Amino acid sequence: MNRKEQIIERFIPIAALETLTAEAADAVPQPQLLQGLVAVRQVPFRVGRESRVKKVNGRLERIERPKMDDREPNNDLYLVDHGQLLNISREHLLIDVVGSSFVLVDRGSACGTKINDEPIGGEDQGGTRSLNDGDIITVGTMESPYRYRFHDLRGFIVSLTPGR
After folding, report:
1. Are 91 and 107 in contact (CB under 8 A)?
2. DSSP strand E in 82-146: where?
3. What's the confidence (pLDDT) of residue 110?
4. Whole-prediction pTM value?
5. DSSP E strand boundaries for the chain
6. Is the dihedral of CA 34, 36, 41, 42 positive or negative?
7. pLDDT lower than 70: segments of the chain
8. Is CATH 2.60.200.20 the right assignment for the domain spanning 3-152?
9. pLDDT score, position 76
C-alpha cells in the first residue's frame, strides 16, 4: 500500500452512526458530528459515557480531556448522558468486524444496548449480536433517547482517480 492509499484509508469511514434524536446528536462531541453522522474509521470502535462534565447554566458541558501520556483512551466516542438517570455506561459498547460481518458487543453496561429493540447485555452482563446495515442501536434502556442508525459503508468507496 502506497502512502496516499494509507492516508485515504485513515480518512474514509467504513461505517457511520446516524443520530436519530436531538438528544443523540447533542450527546456527540461536535468535532465528531458531521451533518448528523459519526464516522467509524477503524474497528474496534468503542463507545462510552463522558464522565468529565460540569454544570453550566443548569446544563451538562464537556470538560476538555487532558492528553494521556502513552495510554490509549477507553473509547473512540465519548457521549454525554444528559438524563437524570444514566443510560450510558463509561465503557458501554463496541462495534467490530468478525470475519466479514459487523458485530456489536455490549461491554458489560448497566442498562444494556438494543439493536432494533432486541436487548443485548445489561445488568453488567455484556453480550454480542450481529450488526447489519440500517439497524437501530439504542444505547441504554428502551426509553433511552440515545438512538443511532448503523450504516455499513464498505464497498461504497468512490474512485478517487484524478481528473474525474
Report:
1. yes
2. 93-98, 101-106, 113-115, 118-120, 127-131, 136-139
3. 95
4. 0.84
5. 15-19, 33-34, 37-40, 45-49, 53-56, 59-62, 77-79, 93-98, 101-106, 113-115, 118-120, 127-131, 136-139, 147-152
6. positive
7. 52-56, 58-72, 157-164
8. yes
9. 93
Question: 3-class SS at 107?
Answer: coil
pLDDT tens digits for 104-140? 999 999 999 999 999 999 999 999 999 999 999 999 9
> Measured between alpha carbons, how far is 113 from 115 in angstroms, rounded to an integer?
7
User: Which residue is associated with the grid cell 445489561?
Assistant: 122
Asked if 31 and 50 count as a contact pair (C-beta separation under 8 A), the reply is no
C-alpha cell at position 81: 448522558
